[in-house]
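COURSE: Structural Biology Practicum
ASSIGNMENT: Worksheet 4, Part C
STUDENT ID: 0417
INSTRUCTIONS: Below are two proteins. For each, the amino acid sequence is given first, followed by its structure token string. Answer the questions at the end about the second protein only.

PROTEIN I
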Amino acid sequence: MPTFTVTTTLKIEADTAEEAALLMYRALSRGSVPLHYRVTNETKATTDLVLDREKADEYAMIDHTADPGNW
């Protein structure tokens, strides 16, 4: 199965890197889900994606571990 690295960014004004990381954590823990992602595959090919929130929520509700293709 291919491996991907998924990253997201949030511009945050802070005095230190640690404070910025804590503010990012706070935003994520409060349910502020980012929709802009950069996905890099094993060959270092990169794609920028903007997810449709409705489609992403629908996908997240499905148990994809039940798909035999994942075994």
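PROTEIN II
(use this one for the questions)
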Amino acid sequence: MKLSKNLTYINDILLRFGSYVYDKDMINRLELMKMEIQELYRNGLINKEEYLNCILIINKRMDEEK
């Protein structure tokens, strides 16, 4: 998966469940996205592959932001 599509990929998953995450600060936005994705996975709404892809994308992006 290309990194240019990463946040779009996560937003598409979140929007599928009626969730939209926005914060002016990118680190905060990524943290909120991570919490939402973890909650979706815990509740069995997304599969393991989607969950792991999202977490990988978020962690990489957080490293880039720091």
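ANSWER KEY EXCERPT:
Q1: The chain has a mean pLDDT of 91.
Q2: DSSP finds three helices and no strands in the chain.
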